[in-house]
Amino acid sequence: METTALSRVDVDRAERRLAGRLWKTPVVRCDQLDALAGARLWLKAENLQRGGSFKVRGALLAVERLAAAGSRGVIAQSTGNHAIAVALAAAEHKLPTVVVLPSDAPPTKIRRIRETGAEAVLVGTTLAERVAVVEELRERYAYDVVDPYQNRDVVAGQGTATAELISQVAAAGGRLDAVVVPIGGGSAIAGACLASCGHDLAVVGAEPETVPAFTAALDAGGPVTVPARPTIADGLRPDRIGSLPFELSHRTIASVITVPETAIAEALRVALLHARLLIEPAAATALAAALDYASGHATDVGVLLSGGNIEPGLVASLLTDHSGRAR
Amino acid sequence: METTALSRVDVDRAERRLAGRLWKTPVVRCDQLDALAGARLWLKAENLQRGGSFKVRGALLAVERLAAAGSRGVIAQSTGNHAIAVALAAAEHKLPTVVVLPSDAPPTKIRRIRETGAEAVLVGTTLAERVAVVEELRERYAYDVVDPYQNRDVVAGQGTATAELISQVAAAGGRLDAVVVPIGGGSAIAGACLASCGHDLAVVGAEPETVPAFTAALDAGGPVTVPARPTIADGLRPDRIGSLPFELSHRTIASVITVPETAIAEALRVALLHARLLIEPAAATALAAALDYASGHATDVGVLLSGGNIEPGLVASLLTDHSGRAR
User: Fold this and answer.
1) Kindly report the CA angle at A57 between A53 and A60, in degrees rounded to 5?
2) Which of B276, B310, B320 should we substitute to test contact with A (largest number of A Cβ atoms within 10 Å)?
3) Do A210 and A245 fall within a single domain?
4) Which of A175, A313, A325, B21 is the most buried (most CB within 10 A)?
5) The pLDDT value given to residue A323
6) Does the interface predicted TM-score (ipTM) exceed 0.85?
7) Does A320 sit within 8 Å of B326, measured CB to CB?
8) pLDDT value at position A1?
9) CATH number of residue B107's parent domain
């Protein structure tokens, strides 16, 4: 692992390496969400991306580099989307893959991983438990680990989602004041900070109120583990920010918004019914933060809708009230 | 009303008139739907359009022409989306609007109309019942009628959705063999036939098995009224094809696929869970037909996902089985 800092140049390079290999996901506008936000929202629909999330960007680059270096196989731990992305990327290179997920990961995400032929190991609920198993597997198989937060290709690759959003808005004649990105382990926010360099743009992070790992890291001056409380935003459950993402983002980030569970659920519902996009709760966390932040702070706000891998049953329950009636 | 035939030139002119006034909706790709289809599907996501459907294209042009001619107000009959579109367009010109819908039109569609300030009259379930009320209202108010099938601006405007799809696919390096379009009163299929002129492209229509109005018109050599049987595709309930759309499309159309209700529901579900797009049953009828048609007939199939105005309760019910469990 190189130790020099990443920069905008690395995101630009990542964009060139990825050219033509992914869907160019649209930036969606919606009058009704704009009315709710009191500002123009520009929704980067990475829920429509290959593998159902923006994580495939970094995974493709990282796995490609390992494959070129003669890797025998890859291991990744993740709450789900990074694992799906690594499994898809490794399948392209016919590399054996083992991924480590929380034992209560969404069945939809587990199924997508197994469809690629990768092995999925389910263990515990915390980051530390998964990391311990990754170490064990690495020693057993001599495979390479694709870390979701510390890998430079991963962070630069994730930054291309924000870079693409910024250029798509410019191509449509707009100019973003701010971009709102969900915070799990930190690769999206770090990538967004890199991508925003040279643009006059506030980078805003969104994390569940129940897992305020970035807020805690800012208070402590560095990554700390926060108590693991439940959130429907399964993708934002990492209870500690990666040190590389924190280092890359803590000076640039304009603010971190902690989002209550009810606001995450409501944002998911309005994205579906007004913007007609199915997003997962992690993406809804960013949308909820954007709805909260936009009014008064900005006229044009980009939102990274990070993914769309969600359980059908959760969607159904958000569309019906407690008595089973549609709402 | 002019009586000369419409042509590709009218669609090109409509595109220029609409430039910059609507969302440029994306063409969405999805590996999982491609696998189901056995071909590449290019999904024109007009469910993300202003007003939630492609109908705003024709309505904007028609209402603008009436406003310029000094109209006192407008009247439209519709199963829902044309009425929403006319109401939105008329609101831009501050023209009073009355729309006539079936008495069992989806509440979501009725609400959207009333949000624009338009008056919604609910009557009967058949086209003939609505047309009779439109005549009555026209005499009472001296407003202008924006017919959803016979108006030339409407048909040319609806054609811009297919024209845009064809150019977006070309810009992405693809080439369509076929385009699949839902058939209600016929404006979408007529517009698609106009837009496809000069392209080597099969235009395929999709209608519910329970309302085979185009199939019946082809058999009879002209529009006939078919018995009104129920369909979840509320937008495709017109029981008779408009004469202008039939005239413009019956020679060009390559085939008409009649889609069973179960296939419409299943297509809606896979669009949501795989492509992460919320579409209404009319759009799902086109997707179902495309899934049926693609394999064996074509390698690249465009699908007009016509709209996304759907009841939350219907979505919830499609995501759960009879026992209320997620499926």
Assistant:
1) 120
2) B276
3) yes
4) A313
5) 63
6) yes
7) no
8) 45
9) 3.40.50.1100
